[in-house]
Give the backbone structure.
Amino acid sequence: MIPIEELENAMSRTKVDLPTLIALSAFSFMLATAFHEHAGHTLACGLLGGEVREMGAFYVDCGYESLTALSNRLVALAGPLMSLIVGLLSLVVLAGASSSNPQLKYFLWLFATTNLMLAAGYVLFSGVAGIGDLGTGRNALFYQVQPEWVYRIELAVLGAAAYYAVIRLAIRKMDDFIGGDGAERVQRAQSLSLSSYLTGGLVAILIGLLNPLGLVIVLVSSVASSLGGTSGMAWMMKLLDRQKYTGEEPFGMERSWRWIAVSGVFLLAYTLIFGPTLYFK
């Protein structure tokens, strides 16, 4: 883990307010999780006639035995599909966002990237590990498919290709507003992306630790999705063109107490409600 002093120094050099960046990053990661779990899985469960029994920060108990095999598969698909839809819609909003509001610009970029990485990451993860929403385990999309190894190889290849496409798209979108020239712009973009990745992953783990089911949820859900699914953020900006000279002012953001407050309220509410799990009888 990078010491907080190093992050502060890096942000100071790039004219980015660290508390605001941390707030935007934590908000983006957990809002993406909320869309995936509750606007995706939970909503699909209710619409398809399932019985929502538990709603955690990173999981939902849908009472799957009350659903048909097809409905179970659709509930499993709903999470990654929601992440994909939200990510694509965020890109549309990002295209129209004004550069005069750097906090919003960066949030939309990060939110779109997080959601799209989660969508593609689940395909790759399910193919490689055989578990997860699109895996072959019980209540997953490809439960009992045969031959299993063929589907998993296809998923892994499709997931890897999709994840690489998301990385290239995220880099191109960052390239549109990062500004600056040469290697300096690459370092600045890398500092932003890595800081967001570490922040989002740490917050996800801390919230995940509150779940009553133990470390299995932390490892399989919060770590796998937040640190694994978005791992490209840790290194992808090194692929930015180091030879490019934009002649534009380097991207930066000042402190925004509004964004810090919104993030704090959302995180507190999400943690208190879903961290220890919400039960329905």
Remarks:
- Helices lie at 4-13, 18-47, 69-96, 102-129, 148-177, 182-208, 215-228, 257-274.
- The first helix runs from residue 4 to 13.
